[in-house]
Write a structure and sequence with these properties.
The protein is of the alpha/beta class. About 30% of the residues lie in helices and about 20% in strands. The chain has 16 helices and 16 strands. Strands 1, 2, 3, 4, 5, 14, 15 and 16 form an eight-stranded mixed β-sheet that branches. Strand 6, helix 6 and strand 7 form a beta-alpha-beta unit. Helix 2 packs across helix 3 and helix 12 packs across helix 13. The protein is globular. The N terminus is likely disordered.
Length: about 525
């Protein structure tokens, strides 16, 4: 350490074991909490220029774990840190082969347009995108002259599977409308993979879907990000390692649902009081578990708090591990929700519906919050009355993240047309927006809002080969998805029945005809 000081190392900083524990989660490696506490502490020391504790850490890690620490080990289901992913993805990519899509107009999802473009797909990834690129030997060549290519479309707000078709009471599984706070429920436990609308969405070019609970409650529960592939189980559709999301709702819905039952909230001020009380409880729960982990790390005997599924989700938000997707229409309420997020130290990833985002687009840009909305849904309730078709372009012009989403099993099949309407409205308002920029509203920007932009949403080398081939300009009302690749495998082909899958439910219906 003397040598480190002589080289001008920074002054030692106080150890932040809580931050170190978060950056070295114990459940990820099969070793004792003491071992990880030592490693985390040494990592903090090393960052401060004090690198001489590695030998000590190695020696201590190889020593027997003290009895007090061993007795404090918990089964995974009782430890929120160890049980963060109890329903892991079993997704497996569709089989694919090296493919060259040649001669297309390519919208990359990065704001660029490549004319006479070639898209190379290999090993499930985008290998290259360039103008006039010759296909390598051994690649399947898709002649796309006169056609368009985009990234696979992403819908950030869907209820497919939780409000499955046919629309009957037996399939109404999207709103656990029994308490204003149901953060403990997870949408994936309601998803029915046989919902025929998944197949229809794929035929509309959609490769990734966020399925959310409904908006009856202040805290509606966790959403799940799915790969839009035929599957037997929801785990077979889960996007590997995509962050979980939390659906929150403000405005008319929760106050109407519970006010009609003579319960709180029945007003907007009741809504806000409910959010704040929940975050206070979550912070207290987090402190109790942090104190427990700190004692265990020191080898002290400790009794763990009782695990609470509702508070696990809220703590995940406070730790930045779970993304907030907030149903909110009015500008003034969005501003209040931003204030609440700052009061309790969490981030809002996206406001959904958000028809008044244009009024506070600068505020959304400053706080890096996306708007996920429609173009022309207006007047369904009072908080929708100030909706305008140019909402998304105005948000884009302010430098904020703008998204077109569905919330509807029909619209999810036509996200490109909804984006085209927004583009036309923006141009009519005097905004200069290209089609290559607008395609981001249904590709790259949704990927950002789901925390998966490093993997999909744009046609860039190394990203997942989620690709849609269109038979016309996708901003034309006549455009149809001709072929869809998911992770480089053909998931849909309009010209080949072999790639037009039907769910077991649909096949069963055919058998009755």
């Amino acid at each position: 350490m003397e040598g480190a000081e002589s080289q001008g190392a920074a002054e030692p900083q106080p150890l932040d074991l809580r931050a170190a524990r978060r950056s070295h989660p114990w459940h990820l490696i099969g070793a004792s909490p003491l071992h990880h506490a030592i490693r985390a502490a040494c990592a903090v020391l090393a960052s401060a220029g004090l690198a001489a504790c590695a030998t000590t850490a190695t020696k201590a890690a190889s020593s027997p774990v003290p009895a007090a620490t061993a007795s404090a080990e918990l089964p995974k289901g009782l430890d929120p840190e160890a049980a963060k992913n109890p329903f892991p993805s079993t997704y497996r990519p569709l089989p694919g082969r090296p493919t060259a899509i040649v001669g297309a107009t390519v919208f990359t999802g990065t704001g660029s347009q490549v004319d006479n473009g070639t898209v190379l797909i290999k090993d499930g990834k985008v290998e290259a995108v360039a103008a006039g690129l010759a296909p390598p030997a051994g690649y399947e060549v898709v002649d796309a002259r006169g056609k368009w290519v985009t990234p696979g479309l992403i819908d950030t707000h869907s209820h497919l599977g939780v409000y499955a078709a046919p629309e009957v009471a037996a399939h109404s599984d999207g709103n656990e409308a029994t308490d204003p706070n149901t953060a403990q429920v997870w949408a994936e436990h309601s998803v029915w993979p046989q919902d025929p609308d998944f197949n229809l969405a794929r035929a509309g070019g959609v490769t990734t879907i966020l399925v959310l609970p409904g908006s009856a409650n202040l805290f509606g529960g966790r959403g799940v990000t799915l790969r839009n592939v035929p599957a037997r189980t929801v785990q077979d559709m889960k996007f590997p390692d995509a962050p979980y999301t939390l659906k929150m709702a403000c405005g008319e819905n929760p106050k109407r649902v519970y006010g009609s039952r003579n319960r709180s909230p029945s007003t907007r001020m009741g809504n806000v009081a409910g959010y704040r009380a929940a975050w206070i409880n979550a912070a207290d729960y987090m402190r109790k578990w942090d104190a427990y982990y700190a004692k265990v790390a020191k080898g002290e005997k400790a009794d763990p708090p009782k695990r609470d599924l509702q508070l696990d989700t809220l703590v995940g938000v406070l730790k930045g591990e779970i993304l907030v997707e907030n149903h909110c229409y009015r500008a003034d309420e969005m501003a209040q929700m931003i204030d609440i997020s700052k009061e309790f130290g969490y981030r809002i990833t996206a406001f959904h519906h958000a028809v008044e985002s244009y009024k506070i687009a600068d505020l959304l840009a400053a706080n890096d919050i996306c708007t996920a909305t429609w173009t022309n849904w207006w007047g369904g309730k009072l908080e929708q009355y100030d909706a305008i078709p140019a909402n998304v372009p105005l948000v884009e012009a302010a430098g904020a993240c703008a998204i077109i989403k569905s919330d509807d099993p029909d619209l999810i099949q036509r996200l490109n047309q909804e984006a085209a309407e927004a583009l036309a409205a923006g141009r009519a308002a005097g905004l200069s927006i290209t089609e290559a920029q607008a395609i981001r509203w249904i590709t790259a920007n949704p990927a950002k809002a789901l925390g998966i932009a490093d993997q999909t949403g744009s046609l860039e080398p190394g990203k997942r080969a989620d690709v849609t081939l269109w038979d016309a300009d996708p901003f034309s009302i006549y455009a149809r998805a001709q072929r869809v690749w998911i992770d480089g495998g053909v998931a849909y082909d309009r010209g080949d029945p072999k790639y037009q899958p039907k769910s077991d439910f649909e096949l069963g219906l055919e058998g009755l005809r």
